[in-house]
Fold:
Amino acid sequence: MLKVWRTRDGEGGRAGGAFQFERLAVKITRWRVVLGCVAAGSFLIGLVAMAPAEIVTPRSSNGERQAVGTVWAGERALPGGFGAGWSLRPFASLFSLAAVERIRLRGPDTEATAEALVRPGRVLVRDLEGTASMRLLNAVAPAMPFVCDPVAQLDVARLSIRGAPEGEGTITTSAGQCALTGGGAGTPVPALAGTVTADEGSTLVTLNRDGSGEAVMQARVQADGGLTASIEAGGVGLIPGMTAPVRFEGSL
Structure:
């Protein structure tokens, strides 16, 4: 029982109108506790959701803002004229016990949408659909020594970026060119057909020569967000300066 005190005026002229104290007992039930917790939780979630987007996307090394909007709905700028926008889905988040956000990727030759499920130690992208320039790879992993301009068609049901590996979907690219990031002549690249799969240790994205099935590029995403990209034997000669299979390390 919760003891609460309140005041009232004297009744029937008693106490000369002076204040009296009345003892009131309020019964605490399970549902009142639940409703109180929900109200408090909603208030805290509201405070976080309306906070500036910069608390999750800090300023760049030179002090420039990299994001606009709020944690609820905002957009982050990426190199090369690309951007990644998001909007929180509150009801889906409540039922998933995680932050569920609608994601939009935009930029040169890029227009794609997806849903992201985010919780501590876990980032899962679902229903990734649309088109994306392969230059977006350089925006995400700037250490890559080459840049390619084919446009990819995305149809990915699941892609784990952090946490337990998950992968299911297809990626196809148009023909185009690849060149070294420092400049120079480009090398023609044929159309590629890719798959998104997963094994016990990582999520795997593989791009193969369309028709022959020979692997050209691979990217492995580890549970901790570590990224290993590689040029396979089928890609030797397609990427300028690549005369043998090679691997690159990074993180997402």
Observations:
- The chain has a mean pLDDT of 79.
